[in-house]
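Subject: sequence -> structure tokens, single chain

Hey, anyone have a minute? Need the predicted structure for the following. Not urgent.
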Amino acid sequence: MPEDAPFTGPLDALTDVAGIRVGHARVPGERGLSGTTVVLAPAGGAVAAVDVRGGGPGTRETDALDPRNLVQRVDALVLTGGSAYGLDAASGVMAWLEEQGRGVPVGPGPGQVVPVVPAACLFDLGRGGDWRARPDASTGRAAVEAAAASEPGSPVPQGTVGAGTGAVAGELKGGVGTASVRLDSGTTVAALAVVNAAGSVLDPRTGILYGEYGAAEPPTRPARATHEAARRRLAEIRERRGAGPFNTTIAVVATDAALTRAQAQKLAGTAHDGLARAVRPVHLLTDGDTVFTLATGRLPLSPEPVSALNGILAAGADALARAVVKAVRAARGVEGPGGTFPSYSDLYGAVDSERGGAS
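Reply:
Had a minute. Here:
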């Protein structure tokens, strides 16, 4: 067992990893329900990796993160709505990085760089009522500029923002959530999730969010009458709109530990365990579930590297499960020409509850 005992970081956010900044941008227009989130690495970049488990992924530059390949560090990651169309947001981030002289050096001049900007997208097309309202290069630029303008260690806006603007979690409104773990060693592990799952985040027996089971505190159980009312409303909405391709949860897990690219890839893989705790079922053919890792290398691993790495791996899964819960709790419900997507708080509120487990 890992010796480190986990504690929440000061912000309980991805930005608890020193040097990491996050920016959001939304597609303009009343009928645009989509956006982009950019995670900006510290100057000099960070070791990066990826693990794709969903059967319908939409990605860009993920092959560059294979530990066998050339690129060692990246400067930014893009999480975006708009399905495959939305991957164009990475072009705006790439252009901005080039202007800053950040990227892989490919020539003798200081500006002769090629920024490598891995990206993953989720499906939210038409959820605001306009099929063509989706992120493009200008959305990506706005998101990376927002990240760059933020102060180091700033809180991260959550809920219906950025790539989570049009996200749907099963039958509930999804969104962006973030959480962090501070280990006894001083290492920080944090996650940011954009929850847009084909599976459910909600236990249909109780109304408890799956990701809350096994937490340090017993989960908050909604009162029975509240849960029955929520089930009836969801059934009515389901009957009106029918089935939909509500797919793909995408996430970033970051740490200030000095990881190799192979170790970073292991962290991306084990972080999916946290996703599996919070979304059921997960990794379906209609999902594109993708987890990126960033390792800034500020802190070396302890003299017992296996034990230290195990602690980081466990913390990544824990942080991602909590990030999913926080995303669903922070989301705001949407009702418009693209459909009705109630939030968890719309259905269950924050007060009418019973403390206890799922019995």
